[in-house]
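re: ur msg from earlier - yeah i can do the coenzyme A complex, just paste it... oh wait u already did. ok heres what im feeding in:
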Amino acid sequence: MRVKRLGESDLKHVKGIDSSFDVEQCLDYTKKSFGDKYVFEMSLAEHPSPFRKRFSHYDEDYMRMLSSFVKEGGSFEIEENGKCVAVAVTQCHKWNRSLQIWEFLVDRDYRGRGLGRLLMQTVFDYAKDMGMRSVFVETQTSNVKAVRYYEHMGFEIAGFDDGFYSNSDVENREVALFMRRSI
Ligand SMILES: CC(C)(COP(=O)(O)OP(=O)(O)OC[C@H]1O[C@@H](n2cnc3c(N)ncnc32)[C@H](O)[C@@H]1OP(=O)(O)O)[C@@H](O)C(=O)NCCC(=O)NCCS
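and the outut:
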């Protein structure tokens, strides 16, 4: 197993990884306002209709955007027996010294073996070398396993956007969560 810097020509490996995961739970999101008080709540619940999620946002436009981040040099992959089994794509925001993780994927068949920890440590080391003060990532209320994983790696929920993907994110139980960790 070896960690490599991701090159532009390696970006196609992102699509080759089986990044699917099973959604069995979710964080149920509600918001209420009472005059001058706003209450946002998220609580763990069983998903009413469990399903296997497959990311489907890798269109030409998105891949072109990722490519521009990969050029910066802060994206990595893990290879095992010549096959790419994990990928992290990041972007440095110099103005506020934070590193954004755009993609963080370990192939389904290779999970639970420490690859996610190794890849994340590589990202933390890179962020430190670049003088960043924090690392942040966007995930969803439907991806409780990822939320738990990021918490385990020192991230906290720092914010959310209940209209990030569509006009029915709340009904779809897929609200965007932003998680952050200091460096
Ligand atoms: C989330 C993901 C990256 C984790 O990768 P992984 O290789 O399975 O993680 P590791 O085996 O390296 O685990 C690292 C640590 O996190 C912990 N961990 C992993 N998943 C966890 C979970 N669901 N809940 C709690 N802890 C978890 C492990 O126990 C391990 O702890 P340790 O190192 O202290 O012993 C992987 O499951 C994945 O790619 N999921 C699908 C794609 C996805 O959702 N990506 C995130 C998109 S925002």
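cool cool. The radius of gyration is 17 Å. ping me if u need the other ligands too
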